[in-house]
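Format notes (please read before filing issues)

Several people have asked whether sequences and structure tokens are stored in separate files. They are not. Every record keeps both together, in the order shown below: the sequence lines, then the token lines. Line labels are part of the format and must not be stripped during preprocessing.
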Amino acid sequence: MGSATSFTKPKPLNIVIVGGGIAGFSTAIACRRAGHNVTIYERSSLNNEIGAAISISSNASRSILAWGLDSVRARVVEGKRSYRAYGTTLEKFHDMQHANTTEVFGAPFLFVHRLDFNDELRRLATNDKGEGKPVVVHLKSVVTKYIPESGSIELADGTILTGDLVIAADGVHSTAIEAILGAHNPAIPTDQMAYRFLIPTSKLLEDPSTSQLVNDDGNEIQNLALLQHTDEVIGVEDWQTQGSRETLLEIYSNFDPALLAVIKKATDIKKWPLLYRAPVSTWHKGRLVAVGDAAHPMLPHQGQGANQALEDAVALGIVLSGATPETLEHRLQVFERIRTKRASLMQIFSNAGQDQMEKMGEDAEIYIPRNEIPKSPDEFVKYIFGYDVVRDATQTMEIEYPSWKLSATFFDKTPGRGVYP
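Then the structure lines:
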């Protein structure tokens, strides 16, 4: 058990975050609200970002809403319903209503465009309001090396930058895990490809063959994603790779005519190769820790990539509240204790898919007893949506540091309560 935290407010840590995506900016918000000085280094210019709609489930939305997320600015849409159906007949085999999600799980189920969401996280991290100093962002800063022992990074121009802590939030191709493990451990291509495209709602409504698939409720754009097994190997996760409408029509030739009619309307198809990496034994070494896809990349079958990054951010911010350079190693151990089991299970559940229950069970038994592994869509929803990372992290810290208390300004308002722990 760690020693009790002094009542004297500690000096802020200087934290370096690599990556300006969802993981990077959400972690920056959390670390800023924990009272630390945060600087982000992002390789891109953030002015040519693309992406698609993502879901933010209750396990993550409870925290970001408590941070003051502006739903209008981020153009958030609250989910009403989701279902799974057979592509050949459109016959539903699992239907889930989201109208009572807040009542059941303490927070809503949201949809948002990745770019809009990232812009809003950036605003929350860098604006003048709220606890702590605004986060400083350096763009077009390519990190070529992590140095865990000294808490340093090296940029492409040879510049060495050092902080009290470096947080790698630079995605599936991050070299941070290699620096942490001391061995090459790249994400590898799977046999799956995602095809994504946007279609104006008006184009679907005006065609009788597709109007049955959408509601005339004022929405302007429909986001489509198709997953398919493929022999094509692309070793880089790239949202910009162009796909072919003719290829999709051939792949899905036995699908319901309404779905084929939707595909025929697609004009700009992007194909996104899905990459895989098994859970790793640790996420930190020295003064370096990895979060999000840099630590635990996962396939999209459970829609949890962004959500697990947000859980990481909240947990790390809570754990680092009141941290000093002297207590940092123990705090990172506590962070891993809170996060690695759940995130590793989410990797297993996401990578296997619910149609591979036997394989999933074998892999998941490393982390939880087999009788606790979700076995149905409803059990998966409860396991995923019902988790309360705020309560988990706070309770753990109160045990480790009996005099520790989370700052009242860490959140703007009290987060919705989850189902467990």
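For reference, the curators noted about this record: The chain has a mean pLDDT of 91. The longest strand covers residues 188-200.
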